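Regression test case RT-17, inverse folding.

Input:
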């Protein structure tokens, strides 16, 4: 237990406490808030505006950035021209968003010039930048193009670097920290599947293939390619069986053979939006799918519909319907289309006793939007307070790689293998999302190779693999 004294203005205090708790959790330490007098007597970590000195060797003193305090009191985009860099632990160059010093690196941290990694970490962990975005995409989502990660070329988990820098400073004062051990493994693997549809043979599929792809060319293909796909789709629709259902069974078969426990995110539509799947909870295959998932040791997660992340009551209705259908207490959630009200969704999840989320990601770019490959709690920006809901940051999904980023299968496999190496280095969690149609050779040609080759590479590294619920429990057991 690390004693921590926080002396900042009241409005900024919850933000500082939230960031400190998460950084110290990455370092596998709990914290207890104490007064300045207690800190002088017993030692620990000080974060605040007091520039006075504390006993050397007993107290780690980090001066809070006054610029950060002022910045978070408003809603504006960060000025990246004022950002300075320090040398990291694994990364050569680590941008610090809010500075309180003139030195250049951690090696000088015996002086009171240690950078304000606390405020900088809060910016990323709270997804603060999505609240200042000016150009959302067509679905109202925060884009990678507007992110600090894109503007600064950050391709590593910057919050994990902040934690390691803080850990080095604590160790100089004799305060022990640890790396996360996933029951002896270096990293964890969270395999997930968004089950948007479970039946391909519908009027909607016929309309999509004939109108959207053949006539309107929404996939931007040549005429021969469009005709080939349409002919293959007609043959598929006339052939016995259902390609989506076959694909889902193959996903589950792979997990059973590999000993992986997947989390299936299930839709539970009440008022269907055009971007939602057709209602499927009542289909006979649904029960077969859930039975096979249960046999594999998997978890049922909630995939709220296109409009459920916004005010209107759909979230609660859909959640209740899913729990009634499955008889399961749902603990994990990921929003459909990654669409939600960023100011309120953390509070909504808390109110409905959801334990973890995996929605804070970019639709069009792989990587961690919150700058972290470790689980961390969500911050309720609307109520200015931390929550107990864990975010398991999604690192990549198939549609992101192959549709938005327009990568080839081989390029996507290479990217996911590099993600495994990176996450292992920071003792975090690989969270991948492969959709229901992974084995559909018409809609997702070659996607099964991406799925199998990437998973096999991760499995060879012997990760701790569990459902989201299981990963959350192990992470929280400090």
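Golden output:
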């Amino acid at each position: 237990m690390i004693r921590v004294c926080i002396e900042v203005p009241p409005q900024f205090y919850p933000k500082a406490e939230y960031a400190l708790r998460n950084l110290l959790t990455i370092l596998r330490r709990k914290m207890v808030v104490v007064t300045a007098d207690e800190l002088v007597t017993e030692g620990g970590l000080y974060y605040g505006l007091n520039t006075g000195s504390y006993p050397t060797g007993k107290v780690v003193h980090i001066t809070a950035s006054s610029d950060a305090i002022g910045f978070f009191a408003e809603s504006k985009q960060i000025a990246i021209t004022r950002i300075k860099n320090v040398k990291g632990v694994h990364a050569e160059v680590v941008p610090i968003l809010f500075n309180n010093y003139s030195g250049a690196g951690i090696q000088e941290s015996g002086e009171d010039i240690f950078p304000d990694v606390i405020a900088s970490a809060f910016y990323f962990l709270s997804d603060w930048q999505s609240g200042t975005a000016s150009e959302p995409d067509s679905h109202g989502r925060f884009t990678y193009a507007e992110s600090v990660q894109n503007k600064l070329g950050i391709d590593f988990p910057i919050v994990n670097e902040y934690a390691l820098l803080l850990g080095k400073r604590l160790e100089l004062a004799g305060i022990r920290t640890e790396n996360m051990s996933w029951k002896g493994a270096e990293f964890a693997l969270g395999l997930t599947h968004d089950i948007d549809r479970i039946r391909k043979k519908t009027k909607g599929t016929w309309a999509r293939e004939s109108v959207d792809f053949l006539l309107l060319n929404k996939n931007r293909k040549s005429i021969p390619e469009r005709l080939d796909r349409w002919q293959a789709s007609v043959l598929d629709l006339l052939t016995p069986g259902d390609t989506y259902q076959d694909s889902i069974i193959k996903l589950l078969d792979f997990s059973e053979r590999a000993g992986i426990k997947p989390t299936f995110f299930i839709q539970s539509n009440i008022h269907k939006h055009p971007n939602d799947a057709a209602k499927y909870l009542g289909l006979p295959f649904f029960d077969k799918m859930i039975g096979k998932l249960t046999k594999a040791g998997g978890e049922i997660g909630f995939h709220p519909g296109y409009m459920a992340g916004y005010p209107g009551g759909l979230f609660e209705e859909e959640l209740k319907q899913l729990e009634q259908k499955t008889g399961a207490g749902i603990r994990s959630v990921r929003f459909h289309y990654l669409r939600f009200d960023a100011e309120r969704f953390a509070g909504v999840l808390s109110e409905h006793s959801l334990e973890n989320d995996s929605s804070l990601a970019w639709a069009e770019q792989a990587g961690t939007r919150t700058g972290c490959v470790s689980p961390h709690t969500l911050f309720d920006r609307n109520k200015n307070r931390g929550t107990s809901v864990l975010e398991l940051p999604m690192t990549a999904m198939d549609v992101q790689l192959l549709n938005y980023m327009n990568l080839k299968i081989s390029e996507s496999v290479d990217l996911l293998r590099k993600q495994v190496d990176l996450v292992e280095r920071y003792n975090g969690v690989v969270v991948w999302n492969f959709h229901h149609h992974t084995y559909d050779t018409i809609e997702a040609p070659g996607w099964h190779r991406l799925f199998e080759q990437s998973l096999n590479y991760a499995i060879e590294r012997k990760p701790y693999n569990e459902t989201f619920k299981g990963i959350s429990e192990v992470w929280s057991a400090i």
